[in-house]
Task: inverse folding
């Protein structure tokens, strides 16, 4: 915890005093923008946590991936790091708004400009791009020189919870977002596409760190099971470390030979026990 980074109120206040000079927003609008992202995450993560770890804890114990439950110290650390991450994500929202305001992005607001087919296709495309970027950057952060400095913060949680999803070092938070300015400058994206992607990313990340396997027993019997991730998939990443780097899909791990060799067996065993 000694290395924990969280911007102080005074640092945030100093930054906020400068932001309105760049944007045609008043200070209250900037504050609201900065708070929306962390509040949204806190609400969603809280819902998942209280359902699985409080309300249904005993009833759904049979789908718990690891038998142990997190300590209070782990939970507090994860929540604090998550708040830090969400504040950094909020500043990315401000940057996107600024780039759009000065005409550097291809963000549009009328679906009819490109049509509904492009709207849906662009959403699928940026999720694929993000997943590949996440895989590559995630694997890079497991480099023996980078891991101890940056990614080890996330891997302190060997038994992940919904709060683990964004419990990461500030440098990692910036790396996770680095692709966004480039994609919005290169690809026409509707405002709603960005909103849906952001929401999906949050949900997928929380499910990946849920600690409970919520997908059906038959998943591995379906073709879909050869492509999409599961809670077990990412839980194995936390317990075994050097495998299963993907976020939404397992195809990159499968193609690049980083898929845990016993992933399907682990999944089937958990569902067999349930």
Result:
């Amino acid at each position: 915890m000694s290395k924990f980074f969280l911007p102080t109120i005074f640092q945030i206040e100093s930054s906020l005093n400068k932001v309105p000079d760049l944007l045609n927003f008043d200070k209250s609008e900037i504050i609201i923008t900065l708070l929306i992202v962390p509040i949204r995450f806190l609400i969603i993560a809280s819902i998942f946590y209280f359902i699985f770890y409080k309300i249904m804890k005993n009833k759904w114990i049979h789908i718990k991936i690891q038998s142990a439950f997190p300590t209070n110290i782990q939970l507090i650390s994860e929540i604090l790091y998550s708040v830090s991450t969400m504040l950094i994500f909020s500043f990315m929202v401000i940057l996107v708004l600024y780039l759009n305001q000065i005409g550097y992005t291809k963000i549009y607001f009328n679906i009819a400009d490109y049509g509904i087919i492009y709207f849906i296709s662009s959403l699928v495309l940026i999720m694929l791009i993000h997943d590949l970027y996440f895989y590559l950057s995630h694997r890079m952060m497991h480099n023996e020189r980078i891991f101890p400095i940056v990614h080890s913060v996330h891997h302190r949680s060997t038994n992940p919870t919904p709060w683990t999803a964004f419990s990461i070092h500030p440098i990692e938070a910036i790396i996770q977002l680095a692709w966004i300015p480039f994609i919005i400058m290169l690809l026409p994206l509707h405002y709603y596409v960005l909103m849906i992607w952001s929401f999906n990313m949050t949900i997928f990340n929380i499910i990946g760190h849920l600690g409970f396997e919520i997908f059906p027993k038959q998943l591995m019997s379906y073709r879909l099971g050869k492509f999409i991730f599961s809670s077990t998939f990412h839980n194995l990443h936390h317990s075994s470390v050097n495998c299963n780097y993907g976020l939404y899909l397992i195809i990159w791990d499968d193609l690049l030979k980083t898929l845990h060799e016993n992933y399907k067996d682990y999944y089937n065993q958990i569902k067999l026990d349930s």
Residues 1-12 have pLDDT under 50 and may be disordered. The CA atoms of residues 11 and 17 lie 10 Å apart.
